[in-house]
């Protein structure tokens, strides 16, 4: 830190309790009271430097015998007046970035101008501030920190503004352009690589600096000054991503909860403020973040949102964060979405409503970006379009979140349906992830009736299930019967399509056999053997698929017969309930006879050896 020496005399001041005494051999003839301190001094050194002290001492001397001057409103208090008194006595004193603002404001208050004495304190502090402090980044930061304790005096003297403007200019420019030692860098280097200062090797090697070199120093400022600095930097043309990084660094330093649970770079956290102070700080930090997409890390935004929920921040702050997250939801991962529910009005473990709101923001942004509704575009064009990638990623993310929260027994069916149905159909190339979430939900909510289960399963499209998912769903006892039939039907279609493809490949291979056989005589026996093995594998696969298709057809036939049988029994019992007396018994007997005859017919049919499904 740069400094400037003033005065040449030895320090004659001694402190005894709450009083300062000047031990020059002469008795003191004036007492100056500042806050809870008392300074026993002499009139002449004070009169010769300060116009205000001259005026006050003259007024008091005319009225009272004991001269006691009260200066409770002096900027910087007793600490600043102690330095001023030493300057008046010519005592050795060092001007630094830490005390120059105190002395400058105190000197202005005490009217220590050049009209009173040459090279007075106002001139000395102003020269050091403008020619030394403002040219050095570290000293400017230190001086700006002291301005917070000297308001509004520092504002009236334009000291705060000058410090902020100086810092903004230095942050905008390349740090390597500042001369050493002011910025600890130099442009000239010795043959050995060390920095040269006035042609002399310093032994210090230059370091590469990035755009975030000033983040830590700026984070030392209090919030009002930091906000003003960021505002001026933005008006100076500093990139928005650099400003976003600085605000993020500031938030991590002063809000300890943001870095927790997220793998963010650790930052030395200052003393934790109160909850109200943290809430105010969080709301102000969110307002400082740039609105452009992608400038702030998604993990940081989720950390801010989680902290905002804990601190009960205002709704505007939470909505702002949800909107920012929604714009870049495709950059999130599943762990980010698992926000604990801190509300007392709901019982779910995770905040499903918050995820739904962020998804709605993303969908609104995606629709605006595409310029038209994707429903009016051909599905093949959507899949081939690069703009479909973000929403496909988000759909997969939401399906993973649904699978994670589906096991929560307190998650109501409408809330699950709203979140699952909010994703457009074209965003899911396959519904395997959605099927998995539905299956987990059915397993955790076994009390759902048949109508609710069918309503839940309408969320997925059986045609968009993979062959593996179809096989699992066909054997899933938790699914409604109607859904299982649909799954079996579409599984048959997929198998038929696969068989047709295999037959096409087999025909192509058969068409190439004469060429292969012609090559056998030329010594290509190894290629022919490989082709034969491939054909054998294809034939085995085709045979297996034919058997599977046959089994599925038999199962579907049996299921249709069972459904028809159940419908007949229900019609018979419906007639019984509408009649009374003896006719009830006759109808029951006839219904039983019809049921027995139906069973006999089924047993005599060609499918009598097939398996029958049992319904519980």
Textual characterization of the structure:
This protein is elongated. The protein has a 5-stranded mixed beta sheet with strand order 2-3-5-4-6, covered by helices on one side. Strand 4 and strand 5 (37-41) form a beta hairpin. It has helices at 43-47, 51-63, 77-88, 100-109, 121-131, 137-147, 153-156, 159-172, 215-218, 223-235, 240-254, 275-288, 298-310, 315-327, 334-337, 352-370, 379-384, 388-405, 413-422, 432-444, 450-457, 467-474, 481-511, 513-520, 525-577, 582-604; strands at residues 3-6, 13-16, 19-22, 30-34, 37-41, 68-70, 93-96, 196-197, 200-201. Among the domains are: 3-131, 2-Layer Sandwich (Potassium Channel Kv1.1, Chain A), CATH 3.30.710.10; 505-604. It is mainly α and 616 residues long. It has 26 helices and 9 strands. 57% of the residues lie in helices and 5% in strands. The model is unreliable at 175-190, 194-198, 201-207, 372-379, 513-524 and 579-616 (pLDDT under 50). Helix 6 (137-147) runs antiparallel to helix 8 (159-172), helix 13 runs antiparallel to helix 14 (315-327) and helix 25 runs antiparallel to helix 26 (582-604). The relative contact order is 0.03.
């Amino acid at each position: 830190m740069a400094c400037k020496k003033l005065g040449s005399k030895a320090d004659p001041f001694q402190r005894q309790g709450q009083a300062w005494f000047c031990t020059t051999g002469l008795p003191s003839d004036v007492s100056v009271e500042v806050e809870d301190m008392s300074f026993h001094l002499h009139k002449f050194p004070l009169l010769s430097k300060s116009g205000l002290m001259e005026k006050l001492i003259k007024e008091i001397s005319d009225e009272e015998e004991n001269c006691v001057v009260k200066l409770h409103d002096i900027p910087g208090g007793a600490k600043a007046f102690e330095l001023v008194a030493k300057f008046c006595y010519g005592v050795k004193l060092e001007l630094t970035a830490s005390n120059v603002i105190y002395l400058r404001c105190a000197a202005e208050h005490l009217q220590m101008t050049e009209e009173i004495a040459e090279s007075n304190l106002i001139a000395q502090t102003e020269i050091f501030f403008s020619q030394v402090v403002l040219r050095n980044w570290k000293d400017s930061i230190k001086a700006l920190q002291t301005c917070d304790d000297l308001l509004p005096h520092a504002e009236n003297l334009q000291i705060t503004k000058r410090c902020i403007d100086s810092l903004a200019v230095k942050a905008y420019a390349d740090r390597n352009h500042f001369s050493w030692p002011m910025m600890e860098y130099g442009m000239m280097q010795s043959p050995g690589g060390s920095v040269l200062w006035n042609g002399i090797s310093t032994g210090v090697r230059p370091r590469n600096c990035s755009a975030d070199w000033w983040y830590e120093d700026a984070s030392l400022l209090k919030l009002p000054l930091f906000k003003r600095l960021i505002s001026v930097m933005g008006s100076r043309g500093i990139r928005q991503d650099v400003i976003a990084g600085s605000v993020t660094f500031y938030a991590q330093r002063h809000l300890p909860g943001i870095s927790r649970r997220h793998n963010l770079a650790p930052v030395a956290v200052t003393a934790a403020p109160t909850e109200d102070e943290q809430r105010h700080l969080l709301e102000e930090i969110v307002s400082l973040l740039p609105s452009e997409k992608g400038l702030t890390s998604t993990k940081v935004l989720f950390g801010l949102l989680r902290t905002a929920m804990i601190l009960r921040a205002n709704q505007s702050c939470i909505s702002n964060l949800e909107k920012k997250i929604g714009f870049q939801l495709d950059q999130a991962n599943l762990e980010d979405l698992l926000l604990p529910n801190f509300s007392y009005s709901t019982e779910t473990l995770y905040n499903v409503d918050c995820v739904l709101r962020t998804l709605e923001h993303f969908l609104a942004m995606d629709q605006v970006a595409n310029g038209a509704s994707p429903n009016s575009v051909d599905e093949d064009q959507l899949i081939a379009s690069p703009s479909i990638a973000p929403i496909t990623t988000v759909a997969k993310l939401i399906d993973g979140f649904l699978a994670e929260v589906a096991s929560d027994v307190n998650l109501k069916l409408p809330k699950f349906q709203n979140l699952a149905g909010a994703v457009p159909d074209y965003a899911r190339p396959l519904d395997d992830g959605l099927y998995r979430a539905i299956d987990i939900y059915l397993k955790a909510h076994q009390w759902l009736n048949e109508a609710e289960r069918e309503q839940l399963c309408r969320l997925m499209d059986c045609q968009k299930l993979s062959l593996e998912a179809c096989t699992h769903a066909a054997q899933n006892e938790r699914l409604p019967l109607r859904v299982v039939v649909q799954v079996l039907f579409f599984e048959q279609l997929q198998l038929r399509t696969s068989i047709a493809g295999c037959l096409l490949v087999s025909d192509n291979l058969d068409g190439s056999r004469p060429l292969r056989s012609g090559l056998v005589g030329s010594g290509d026996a190894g290629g022919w053997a490989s082709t034969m093995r491939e054909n054998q594998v294809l034939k085995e696969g085709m045979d297996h698929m034919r058997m599977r298709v046959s089994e599925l057809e038999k199962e579907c036939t049996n299921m249709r017969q069972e459904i028809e049988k159940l419908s007949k029994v229900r019609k018979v019992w419906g007639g019984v309930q509408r009649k009374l007396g003896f006719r009830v018994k006759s109808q029951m007997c006839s219904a039983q006879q019809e049921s027995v005859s139906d069973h006999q017919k089924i047993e005599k049919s060609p499918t009598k050896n097939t398996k029958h499904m049992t319904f519980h």
